[in-house]
C-alpha cells in the first residue's frame, strides 16, 4: 500500500509526495507538527499540513534569505531572526565569523526540539555560542527593541495562524525601529502565481514599502513551495540590493553555496513582467 502526503495549493491544485514513513506527529499549543520521510525529497517538515521544508530543496530558501543581505551590508554584527525554528537560517548565518550575536525568536519550542531530533541537517548550528533562542511571539519581542540590529531576517510561516502578526504594519514599523541607521530587513514574501497567494504577496509588499525608504523584491525557484516560484522582500534604511552589492568582498570569503552566487543575486531582482505589474499596483 502506498502513502502520499498532499498539500492543497488551490481548490484545483495539490502537491503530492510519496511517503515511506511518518517519523513524528504531535501538537503544540500553536500548531500540528509532522515529519515525514520520502524517497524523492528526503525528510520534510509540515506545520498544520503545510510544507515548511524538505531536506532536498531547503538549501535554496535558506541561502537566498541569508546571503543576499549579507553580500550587501558591509558589517553585520548583530542579527535578529524571527521564526526559523528549523535552524536553516541560523546554519547559514553562523558561517560568518564577523557576526557577534544572533537573537532567534521562535513562538513554538516544540518545532525547535522536533527539528533538532529529526532534521539535524538544518538544526545543526542552533547550539552556536553566538545564538540566543527566545521562545516568544516575534511581534511582542520586537516592540521593545530600538536601534539594536544590523540585520533582521523574518523567516515566518504563511500569513495566518501563528505567523499572522508578522504581516502587519505595526510589525514592519517595529522592525524599522529595531534596526540601526543602515540596517536591512529581509522577509519571505509568498508566491506571486496563484491568486490567493498573490494577494498576500501584495499586502506584505504594500506594508513594507510604506515602512522603508528602500524596498525591493527578489525571487528563487523552490520546487516544493506553491507553484515553485517564491519571492523575498529586501527592505533597507540605506543600502540598495544591487548598487551596494560588493561581489568581490563576498566572493573573497570563499563560502561555498549550492544555489546562491553574486551573479544570481543580481538576476534574482529582475522579476517577470506580471510580478512587476502586480507589485507596482500596490506601491
UniProtKB/TrEMBL annotation:
InterPro entries: PABS, SAM-dependent_MTases_sf, Spermi_synthase, Spermidine_synt_N, Spermidine_synt_N_sf. It comes from the Bacteria. It catalyses: S-adenosyl 3-(methylsulfanyl)propylamine + putrescine = S-methyl-5'-thioadenosine + spermidine + H(+). It holds the Pfam family Spermine_synth. Residues 2-237 form the PABS domain. Keywords: Polyamine biosynthesis, Spermidine biosynthesis, Transferase. Spermidine binds at residues 62, 86, 155-158. Gene3D superfamilies: Spermidine synthase, tetramerisation domain, Vaccinia Virus protein VP39. It is an enzyme of class 2 (transferase). The keyword Cytoplasm does not apply. Pathway: Amine and polyamine biosynthesis; spermidine biosynthesis; spermidine from putrescine: step 1/1. NCBIfam families: PRK00811.1 (NF002010), speE (TIGR00417). PANTHER family: SPERMIDINE SYNTHASE, SPERMIDINE/SPERMINE SYNTHASE. Catalyzes the irreversible transfer of a propylamine group from the amino donor S-adenosylmethioninamine (decarboxy-AdoMet) to putrescine (1,4-diaminobutane) to yield spermidine. Homodimer or homotetramer. Belongs to the spermidine/spermine synthase family. This is Polyamine aminopropyltransferase. The gene is speE.
Amino acid at each position: 500500500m502506498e502513502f502520499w502526503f498532499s498539500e492543497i495549493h488551490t481548490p484545483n491544485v495539490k502537491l503530492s509526495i510519496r511517503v515511506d514513513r511518518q517519523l513524528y506527529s504531535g501538537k503544540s499549543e500553536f500548531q500540528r507538527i509532522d515529519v515525514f520521510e520520502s524517497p524523492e525529497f528526503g525528510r520534510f517538515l509540515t506545520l498544520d499540513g503545510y510544507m515548511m521544508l524538505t531536506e532536498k530543496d531547503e538549501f535554496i530558501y535558506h541561502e537566498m534569505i541569508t546571503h543576499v543581505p549579507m553580500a550587501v551590508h558591509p558589517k553585520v554584527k548583530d542579527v535578529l531572526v524571527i521564526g526559523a525554528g528549523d535552524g536553516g537560517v541560523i546554519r547559514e548565518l553562523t558561517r560568518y565569523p564577523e557576526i557577534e550575536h544572533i537573537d532567534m525568536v521562535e513562538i513554538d519550542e516544540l518545532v525547535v526540539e522536533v527539528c533538532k531530533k529529526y532534521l539535524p541537517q538544518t538544526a545543526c548550528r542552533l547550539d552556536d555560542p553566538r545564538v540566543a533562542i527566545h521562545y516568544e511571539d516575534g511581534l511582542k519581542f520586537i516592540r521593545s527593541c530600538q536601534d539594536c540590529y544590523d540585520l533582521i531576517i523574518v523567516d515566518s510561516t504563511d500569513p495566518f495562524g501563528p505567523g499572522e502578526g508578522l504581516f502587519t504594519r505595526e510589525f514592519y514599523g517595529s522592525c524599522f525601529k529595531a534596526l540601526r541607521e543602515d540596517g536591512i530587513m529581509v522577509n519571505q514574501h509568498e508566491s506571486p502565481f496563484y491568486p490567493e497567494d498573490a494577494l498576500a504577496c501584495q499586502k506584505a509588499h504594500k506594508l513594507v514599502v510604506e515602512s522603508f525608504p528602500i524596498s525591493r523584491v527578489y525571487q528563487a525557484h523552490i520546487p516544493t513551495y506553491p507553484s515553485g516560484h517564491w519571492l523575498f522582500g529586501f527592505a533597507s534604511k540605506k543600502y540598495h540590493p544591487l548598487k551596494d552589492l560588493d561581489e568581490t568582498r563576498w566572493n573573497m570569503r570563499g563560502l561555498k553555496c549550492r544555489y546562491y552566487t553574486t551573479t544570481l543575486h543580481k538576476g534574482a531582482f529582475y522579476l517577470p513582467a506580471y510580478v512587476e505589474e502586480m507589485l507596482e499596483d500596490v506601491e
